[in-house]
Backbone:
């Protein structure tokens, strides 16, 4: 096998083994060039930690062009929970250049009768708006921050081996890579997680809960139109993104959603709740990723009404090779780390998140945000590794899980509640939706929004973003390494007098 990494981390069988304890930072191998993997790479670049990214796809998506991978063409939004880190990285202004604020959203029945409006969050209080954009543009922004020599394409991981001195990846092209830490950021069907679980299962160390199949409660069709004529679609010119949710009647297990994004485009999304009608379940059983199957589904729902006309008009403005079908899966794995391997969440390739470590329903927009928050927390713990040793690495990865697991677990009730509120079609879910939009005081809804945005971890090895808004957020944990180095500097200064 060829080794594609350099001599910083030789194989354990050689005579030039690295020392068990070294002052050099750990060498990090990142599997997956989705949002989480790229965000982690950018943070490690800032932290001075060596890394390489390995992506199984053949070529990176050309910058400034639409993705050749249909499942990446979708709309997404991110919340104030991660925007301070974009500000730390100097990327917030460019992010805002292709985004629209998503301040309001209106829910309709299938006959376009207003159900209610979502409570708008105040940027004066929260500090930032929630923003909407086309996902490939965020991917482009992150991708161009990664030096080309640190990005490796067509690298499909088939296995890896870890020992006291390092970890070795084996790829499908018979090459290998050697490093100190492996980060699996390669999606819901992660090759890293699969191999790790197989190894742990053979050793009797894999919890039974991690062997269950991820349940699929919804399927969705997503796409983004070409530029539309503002004379026909005047809403595309508004500063704020028009966001409409149309919920089918009791015999129609569909919710269809539209968002306006810059470039006079509309992102659309059709969600089917499984288990309500035989038609929906048959869609799931016969569904495939090929455009022909997507078109068949689109033809069956062309006449659904939207505030712009029928869905078919938006379908006609969307090239078929830029439409994708995705599943909503819901899973929280117990096993996130073992030895030198760690899994992070990653909203990879789709509007609806597909992280390896945790899998949330898409309704709260938590997938991509969680992937990037995972990257921030992990980067903080990797920065604190000094000196580099196997014990310190295991401690750092364990601390990462300890920091993140409860935060992710706490979001599950919110995710399920949001899914029921927007996509639910059972009688109880319809009653729940009616109560929320007609009886719940707006002040309580606003309080929930504020509570969901107080958690905003930042990179603790970079200058903190300025405080925005009046909301008091959760205090940032300081870097243990910086604290230790500061104390040592003070002692040296005192000893010099």
Residues:
């Amino acid at each position: 096998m060829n080794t594609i990494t350099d001599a910083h981390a030789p194989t354990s069988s050689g005579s030039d083994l690295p020392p068990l304890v070294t002052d050099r930072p750990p060498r990090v191998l990142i599997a997956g060039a989705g949002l989480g993997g790229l965000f982690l790479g950018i943070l490690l670049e800032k932290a001075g930690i060596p890394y390489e990214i390995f992506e199984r796809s053949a070529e990176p998506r050309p910058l400034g062009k639409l993705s050749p991978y249909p499942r990446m063409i979708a709309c997404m939004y991110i919340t104030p929970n991660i925007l301070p880190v974009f500000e730390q990285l100097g990327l917030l202004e460019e992010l805002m250049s292709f985004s629209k604020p998503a301040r309001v959203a209106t829910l309709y029945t299938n006959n376009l009768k207003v159900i209610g409006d979502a409570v708008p969050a105040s940027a004066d209080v929260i500090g930032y708006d929630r923003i909407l954009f086309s996902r490939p543009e965020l991917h482009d922004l992150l991708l161009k921050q990664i030096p080309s020599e640190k990005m490796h394409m067509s690298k499909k991981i088939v296995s890896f081996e870890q020992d006291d001195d390092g970890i070795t990846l084996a790829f499908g092209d018979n090459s290998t890579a050697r490093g100190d830490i492996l980060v699996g950021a390669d999606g819901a069907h992660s090759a890293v997680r699969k191999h790790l679980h197989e190894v742990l299962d053979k050793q009797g160390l894999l919890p039974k809960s991690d062997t269950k199949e991820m349940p699929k409660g919804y399927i969705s069709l997503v796409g983004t139109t070409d530029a539309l004529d503002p004379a026909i679609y005047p809403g595309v010119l508004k500063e704020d993104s028009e966001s409409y949710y149309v919920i089918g009647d009791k015999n129609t297990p569909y919710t269809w959603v539209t968002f306006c994004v810059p470039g006079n485009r509309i992102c659309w999304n059709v969600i089917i709740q499984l288990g309500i009608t035989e038609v929906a379940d048959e869609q799931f059983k016969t569904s495939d990723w090929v455009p022909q199957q997507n078109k068949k589904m689109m033809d069956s729902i062309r006449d659904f009404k939207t505030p712009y006309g029928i869905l078919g008009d938006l379908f006609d403005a969307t090239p078929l090779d830029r439409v994708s079908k995705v599943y909503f899966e819901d899973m929280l794995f117990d096993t996130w780390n073992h030895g030198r391997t760690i899994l992070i969440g990653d909203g990879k390739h789709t509007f609806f998140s597909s992280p390896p470590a945790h899998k949330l329903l898409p309704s709260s927009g938590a997938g991509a945000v969680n992937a990037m928050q995972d990257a921030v927390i992990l980067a903080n713990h990797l920065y604190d590794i000094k000196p580099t040793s196997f014990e310190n690495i295991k401690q750092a990865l364990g601390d990462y899980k300890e920091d993140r697991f409860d935060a992710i677990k706490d979001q599950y009730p919110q995710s399920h509640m949001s899914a029921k509120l927007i996509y639910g079609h059972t009688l109880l879910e319809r009653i729940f939706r009616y109560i929320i939009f007609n009886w719940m005081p707006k002040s309580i809804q606003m309080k929930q929004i504020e509570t969901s945005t107080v958690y905003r971890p930042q990179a603790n090895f970079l200058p903190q973003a300025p405080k925005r808004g009046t909301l008091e957020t959760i205090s940032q944990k300081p870097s243990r390494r910086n604290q230790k180095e500061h104390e040592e500097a003070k002692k040296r200064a005192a000893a010099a007098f």
User: Anything to note?
Assistant: The chain is about 35% helix and 20% strand.
